[in-house]
Each structure stands twice: as C-alpha cells, then as structure tokens.
Amino acid sequence: MSAMRVDAKVVMLGKESVGKTSLVERYVHHRFLVGPYQNTIGAAFVAKTIQMGEKVVTLGIWDTAGSERYEAMSRIYYRGARAAVVCYDLTDSSSFQRARFWVKELQNCEEHCKIYLCGTKSDLIEGDRSLRQIDYHDVQDFAEEIGAQHFETSSKTGNNVDDIFQKVAEDYNSTAFQYMTEETGIDLGQKKDSYFYTCCHNN
Amino acid sequence: MRSVKTTEQSRLSGIMSQRTERRGIHVDQSDLLCKKGCGYYGNAAWQGLCSKCWREEYQRVRQKQIQDDWALAEKLQREEEAAYASSHGAQTQSHAQSTAPHSVHVSLGPFSKFEEKKTNEKTRKVTTVKKFFSPSSRTAPKKETQEGKSSSPSISRHASFDTDQVSKDFVDFLKNLQKPGREIHKQCRAFIVNMSSKKDLSADELSECVQDFYQNMSDRLMGHFKGSSDSVEQVMDQVEKYIMSRLYKSVFCPETSDDENKDLVTQNRIRALHWVTIQMLCVSMDEEIPEVSENVVKAITDIIEMDSKRVPRDKLGCITRCSKHIFSAIRITMNEPASADDFLPALIYIVLKANPPRLQSNIQYITRFCNPSRLMTGEDGYYFTNLCCAAAFIEKLDAQSLNLSPEEFDRYMSGQASPRFNSSEGDWPHAGSAPDVTATNPVLAQLNHNLELLSGLSSKQERLMEAAQSLQADLLSWPESVQREVHGILEKYPLEIQSCTASAIDANNTDNDNLPPPLTPQVFAG
C-alpha cells in the first residue's frame, strides 16, 4: 500500500460527524457503514485509482479530524493538497459555519487547492423536508463567490458521491498539464517556506 | 590396407606413449611428493603441494592480495582526500597530510577491512581530534572539535559498518542499471563530498541542497526511464537511502539549528502531562481488552524505534507501522474501521505515553530530507502529517483542549492534584481512595500488588534476620552453659582419686573372708 504512487492529495474537511469518513467509505468500497466491518483497517487514508480515458489518476484521499480542538492544526493537513472536499451536514447549520471557516483558511493558505463544497446526508432531507437547515441556493451563491463546485450527497444512497470525486479527478487532470512545468517550483517553494516549521512551532 | 595399418600403428603408439607417460609419473616418486619437501605426498590440484603446505601457501597469497587491496584502497582514499582538500582550500590542507599516517596505522588493525572501504568522513573526524590536540590548531573552530569529541570510537565503528553495508547494497543495486548506474553513483558521491564542505550552513539551506539534488536526480531519471515514474521512484528510494545514511551524522539535529532545545522542551512537556488520561483525549481505545493493549504496546515500541533509523524513509516506515497498530486497536475496540476523528486523539495518546526520543529533531529531519513525493501525498505522508499534528497539539495543549477548567488544568500541571483521585472520589480526594485507584488502573493495581509482595518479603526477611541473630546468640552461649554445667557437676561431685580397689578373681592376695566356705564333699547314706 505504501508503495502506491499517488498523483494528487485530496483532503476531506468538515466538522465531526458530518460524514466525511462515510463519504470516503461509500466512494471507495461502495457501501454505507451500519455495522461492523472487519476487512478495512482504517478509513483515514485511501488511495483510489480512477481511469480517465487513457490516463490513470490516483487520488490520495486524506481524512482529517474535524473536532474543534484540532482546528489550529488543520493547516498541517491541507498543505500541498490539490483538492479539498469541505463537508457540511445539510441538517446542521453550525456545520456550515465551520465549512466557511475552512474555505477561508484554504483561500489564505493554499491557492492551488480547488475547493468542493459537499452537503451530506441528503437522504434525510428527502425523507423530511423540514430537516433541511441549509438552503441549496445560499450555498450555490457562496460556491460561485469562492469559485468552488457544489454537490449535495448521500453516503447512504450513494447519490452524487461518485460524481464529486470524478469531478475532482477531472479537474486535476485538466490542470495537471498547466502545473507540469511549474511543479518543481511549487515543491521547492514549499520547502523554502517550510510550513511544517511554522505550523509546528510558531503558532 | 596400408592406411589402416598405419592408423592402427599410430593408435598403438599413442597408447604406448600414454603408458610411458603414465609410467614415467609412477616411476618418479619424487614427483609425487610435496614440492615443499615436507615428506608427504602432494596433489596436482594443490599445485603439487600436500594439503598442509597448500593451505599455508594459499593463506600467504591471499594475505598478500588483501594487503595489496588495502594499499590500493588507501591510495585511492588519499587521492580523494587530497582532491577534497585542494577543493576545500588551504585550511584543510593539513587533513590530507595527517590522514596518511593515520590510515597506515588503521590498515594494520584487525578491523581495517571495514574501516578502509567506507567514507572518508570518519577519517576526517579523527584527524579533527588530532588537530584539536596538536598545538598548532588551538584555534580550530569550536564546532568541529565538538563533533570530533562526540564520536566515541565504538559508535563510529558500528555506524561505519552500517554505512558500509548501505554502500555495498547501493552499488549492487546500481549494477543492474549498468551505465546510468555508474553515473548515478558518481553524482551521489560527488554530492556527499560537496555536502561535507557545507557543514556550516543552516538546516534549511542544507535541506534545500538535498532537495535540489533529489529534484535534479529525479528529472534526469525521468528522462532516462522515459517517464516510467515507478522505476524512477525505485531508484530515488535507493539514492535517498544511500546519501542520507552517509549524511545522517552531519545533518541530523545540526548544531546550527535549535532542534536539540526543542527536543528537550517537548520531552519535558510530555513528562509534565503524564496525568492526561485516555478519557480526556476522547480516545476510543479500551486498554482492558488484551488485544488492544498489545497493539498499544506495539505502537509505542514502533514510535520509539523511529529514532534509531537513519534514512528518512525508514523513519516514516516506523510511523506507519505505529499508526497501523493504532488503527487495529481502535477497530478492535469499536468494531468498525477508524476514521481520522478516532485516529488523531489515539496517536496523541500514544505519543504522550511513549515520549519518543528526539521527537522534534526526527520530525524536522524527515521534513527536510525526505523525498518530497513520498512526504506530500502517499500513505506514509498521511501518517507523518498526523504525527506533526500530534506534536503540535501536545505543544499547545491547554485546559480547553482537554475539556477541563483552567484551574483544574493548573492544578494537574503543578502536581497538586491528580485527575484520577478527583474523578473517582469527588469531594473526598484522599480517604479510602486507594481501592478505587486500583480498580480504575490496572497498572496501579499491579504496582500495589508488587508493593505488598515486597513488604511481605521484607518482613519475612526481618524475621529471618532475628532468628539468625538469636541462633547466633544461642550458639555463643551454648558452650558457656555447657561449661557451667560441667563445672557445677564437677563441684557437686568432686573427683576423688581412691586407691585402686579393683580385684581380679584369680588374684592370689584376695582375702577370702567374705566368701562362703568352700563346699566340702559329704557322704549321704542311701
């Protein structure tokens, strides 16, 4: 597993229990967690290979701890990420406030990171419209404002789950050519800034 | 017909000549004997020597060969040294000069085979020690002398053996690549020599040099392998292994950085946080389950082991193994795969429990000198990032991050209170808390049990000592009492020596008065 080469780092951000892990689990293993599963050791890091026409793109999907107590460290996580899937719970307005926080952080610190807003648990809303706390159009406006993609997903039914990662891979593929020549510059630049240094010690 | 005959003849003569040849050998006994003239028979396979003489001869030749090899290696090393010195300037000129006698001395020693082949790094170090002691170099830079002093002979020999092995592996690996392999080797060596002249650079500059080297190397390889990134990665792993195990000493926790201080700060910080419980961190691991605690122990072992590795990639391997054990522990506890929300707190808990040696130095070392492609995206990179988070969290940890009130936090930090007492006893922090403590913590229970055993043992020991002492006293007084008794008896019954009254039955002088009259024969009528 560790020998697997990964093309792009995709980081999952979102408040605790919005369903980041379920989303990844659904996408990678095509299932929704309701009971004990013995065959996966952890769902925190997965490498997923996607066939894009003739090319193969491997996404390394990083799950992150969403608890507020680790908020200060989130910058260490999304450093060098190509895409960030910022999750919020459609039935929990506070989770969207947190999502806004991450979007702001990403805009400040990772300009090359594409942002994907992802509303989760859409199956709950389909069952009961009154549960929806976050308006679709509000998010759409916000997404346009920040230049992000917007999806509403359900890990239970699988609705839109594949689409969001497919989009991530497509976008990576189309921008990869752009970065190809620039890439060395990026990597070295990051070394020079030594984010690790700042994150671990000066905050 | 004639021709047949002639062939027949020639065949015969052939046999004859063979026979005579054979006979010739058989006849001449001296040819059979050992050429050394020791009297035993020789063997053609041993160049006409007997087994004993052959062994001696062979050993001698081999020894000579080895010595020649040493001489050659020495010569090469001196040349390299000289080249290094001339490129380095006049200051190091003395190195090359002092190196020569030193390496001659080395080649005589029994371990010289190992010493010889490997880097000139150590040689240089030894000479700096020499320089330090020689009167002309009192003004040698402080840094250099420190380094010379810090390398104790046993450690450096061990290390040099390791690097030797690494070089050998590297060369073996490159052999498969043929021409480009030689090119890679040349570049790596040149880079290492180049780096050794840059010891005074700051850690970030060193890192930049190494990263530039990785970048250039992988660009070249990319061209060579026509874009097959798997092969490139494979070669890059070997390159990283080779150069980093060579450079490890000079670039791990370099003196130009304050890594060492940070290590100490972190270490003390973790020590001060010994009271943090698994509940405060919201870790979903139940250490009561034997399998879980087994995994926890393995995770702790792995994270501690990280410090002993030299190559960044091996260090990452330790972190990954540690993380996998944590995942197993969580999965066993919760019966479902762990997410990052479970993993990070558990990792923090493991780091707090393990207090890994030189944590900050190791993190910095990996960040600076690991091949970036591995660090940035792959699975190893993920776990490493989590470790960085854990370290950052521990550094900034405060009351809020443990869901405690600031007062509580301060009291725990100052050691005035322990969370276990409070949580189990509430208002009564002391009275009767012992059983609860043992109930909550198996380690404490074990400790108490051991203490009881120990106190039992010590009381037994005391009793034994008392018994022994009374026995000793008894033993001392026994002869006295026996003596006293004997005296008493002697006094009571004083010894009176009387004339000998013993008599023999057949003595003549016995008076027969007491004896009844002798029987006289009587005659009875009838």
Spell out the key features of this protein:
heterodimer, A: 203 residues, alpha/beta, Rossmann fold, 8 helices, 6 strands, globular, disordered C terminus, B: 526 residues, mainly alpha, Serum Albumin, Chain A, Domain 1, Glutathione S-transferase Yfyf (Class Pi), Chain A, domain 2, 22 helices, 71% helix, flat, disordered N terminus
What does this entry look like structurally?
The complex is a heterodimer of chains A (203) and B (526). Chain A is of the alpha/beta class and 203 residues long. Chain A has one domain: Rossmann fold (3-Layer(aba) Sandwich). In chain A, 43% of the residues lie in helices and 20% in strands. Chain A is built from eight helices and six strands. Chain A has helices spanning 20-29, 74-78, 93-109, 122-127, 136-146, 161-180, 183-193, 195-202; strands at residues 8-14, 45-52, 55-62, 83-89, 114-120, 149-152. In chain A, strands 2-3-1-4-5-6 form a six-stranded mixed beta sheet, with helices on both faces. In chain A, a hairpin with a 2-residue loop joins strand 2 (45-52) and strand 3. Chain A is globular, with a radius of gyration of 17 Å. The model of chain A is unreliable at 180-203 (pLDDT under 50). With 526 residues, chain B is an all-alpha fold. Among the domains of chain B are: 66-87 and 97-115 and 148-251, Serum Albumin, Chain A, Domain 1, CATH 1.10.246.120; 259-414, Glutathione S-transferase Yfyf (Class Pi), Chain A, domain 2 (Up-down Bundle), CATH 1.20.1050.80. Chain B is 71% helix and 0% strand. Chain B is built from 22 helices and no strands. In chain B, helix 13 (290-305) packs across helix 15 (340-354). Chain B starts with a helix and ends in a 34-residue tail after the last helix. The relative contact order of chain B is 0.04. Mean pLDDT of chain B is 75; it is low at 1-8, 12-25, 90-157 and 422-435. Classes of the chains: A alpha/beta (203), B mainly alpha (526). The interface between A and B is large, with 54 and 54 residues. Chain A: It is an enzyme of class 3 (hydrolase). Chain A: It is a lipid-anchor. Chain A: InterPro entries: P-loop_NTPase, Rab24, Small_GTP-bd, Small_GTPase.
